Amino acid sequence: MKIEGSSALVTGGGSGLGEATARMLAARGAIVHVMDLNEDAAVRVAADIGGIAIAGDVASEADAGRAITNAGEAGDGLRILVNCAGIGPAARVIGRDGPMPLGDFEKVIRVNLMGTFNMMRLAAAHMADLPELDDKARGAIVNTASVAATDGQIGQVAYSASKGAIVSMALPAARELARFGIRVNTIAPGIFATPLLKSLPAEVQQSLAASIPYPSRLGDPAEYADAVRFCIENQYLNAEVIRLDGAIRMQPK
After folding, report:
1. Which one-letter DSSP state was computed for residue 112?
2. 7-192+220-242 belongs to CATH 3.40.50.300
3. Pick from 242, 231, 240, 241: nearest CA to 1
4. Does the keyword Transmembrane helix belong to this entry (predicted)?
5. pTM for the predicted model, two decimal places
């Protein structure tokens, strides 16, 4: 599907993988809507790329609906959704203070899983009513999982559960939305040089990079964005989960 001229919505677009994706889409001629819970971050990125900033919570029905409506009014309607919003606090099932608070687990599931599904369901409903493009296409959705979906480490039980569910949604969602000409793909990134990782001490970053078989470095968010581009433009790619990780397999801790 062609990116140029299409209306696109990127969640978590104010930093990291989402920001790189927003910049890639803008460079290729899309009308980019940058959604982020951090309004200042969304405004900064949108202003830099000539996009539109949308402040909101992906797990909120009202916020998500407003974002879809805004993006749907651009171009010939919302054609591209990329879900990058997510959180990843570490917590053990049994920590020093006892069992993990249920609310902590619920928050990760709410943002990562329910937020992704919330945006996907509303975007798909909008796309289904759009006129067909070439090859009967109406839209493309790219979700973000993680290698933690299969290689979860100690302290990642909530995060892994949320990302594993996103992986599991890829096939049934793609099958269901196929009749509308909407494709659903998922990218499972490994260790990327996001703002969070860049805040770690240099020796920690070097240790993480050394654990990656090849190339032995942190992933560049631009490489994630390029994978998103491939997912959008390659019309035969559907229901796929792409590991983007330099062949790493995470150790228990």
Report:
1. I
2. no
3. 231
4. no
5. 0.96
Q: Give me 182's structure tokens.
A: 């909407």
Q: What is the largest CA-CA distance in the chain?
A: 57
Coil, helix or strand at residue 110: helix
Q: Are the beta carbons of 245 and 188 closer than 8 angstroms? A: yes
Q: What is the pLDDT of residues 41-84, one digit of tens each?
A: 999 999 999 999 999 999 999 999 999 999 999 999 999 999 99
Residue listed under structure tokens 């809507």: 33
Cβ distance 246 to 212 under 8 Å?
yes
Q: Where are the domains of the chain?
A: 7-192+220-242
Residues noted as catalytic: 159
- The residue count of the chain comes to 253
> Helix axis angle, 115-127 relative to 61-72, nearest 10°?
40
200 CB-side CA count, 13 A: 14
**CA–CA separation, 142 and 161 (whole Å):** 19
Using an 8 Å Cβ cutoff, are 56 and 32 in contact? no
- When computed from its CA atoms, the radius of gyration of the chain, rounded to whole angstroms, is 18
